[in-house]
């Protein structure tokens, strides 16, 4: 790249070529769940070894990362951003020329819902609906209070705790005898499903896909009896101060990669890679299962992905970039 760059006539040394070859410093949000940290490490490796960027991972989480990118212009890249919950903030950033929707993190989008194990629905078919759940609340005993029924919600601080809480209220689950349970962490939430499945015990709560958990354990998504209302979902269900939540199914979740406008303009070739790369739910679920089975962090998982899925990631980059990445591996 550098030899070709200096061999060009002086007139051809446009800002585009300079910025493309001088990727410079790039910061990537390393969020605290498996798929996001895998993406962050894959992006870091390809940007560093394929594009010559000085790519640094910084700790991130959905809401603070989005706010920081909008207000401070950093980090440069949020690899996995569940956009439905923060659509207004993101669109404001785009309209103000601060952010870009670079592309889809998951080519098929994400799925959220309330779930019960398939073995429970096979025994009690009515549990496939929310009315059946409420009428049979006694089948879901609270682990710490046998006078109540348990609903496993999201960990405190996660956006899904807000949405699940509002829908818990809209569905009048407390009146049916349910109490929300904070699992404490994403790992504990996943573990509660695994533990219930292994012991064929009751479980009712929130979860999402793609995940290794829903790939490994057969769960049934509970029918709320209504279609999704994206407007109400965005304006109320996702908002902490919503006081009048109404019943709505979860809309299909747009899971995007977000970048700053500065990064997109100053590093167009690197941005092209970020906007091209997208994971299928099947590939990501398989990788997440591998991470769990091997107790691997994002860095080790990135090497596994790059070594095992060249048929996927080499389509995201030009051939010469793919060669550099392969040599670095």
From TrEMBL:
Q: What is this protein called?
A: ABC transporter substrate-binding protein
Q: Where is the ABC-type glycine betaine transport system substrate-binding domain?
A: 25-307
Q: Which UniProt keywords apply?
A: Signal
Database matches in Pfam families? OpuAC (PF04069)
Q: Does the keyword Signal apply?
A: yes
Q: What is the lineage of its organism?
A: Bacteria, Pseudomonadati, Pseudomonadota, Gammaproteobacteria, Vibrionales
Q: Which residues form the signal peptide?
A: 1-20
Q: Which domain of life is it from?
A: Bacteria
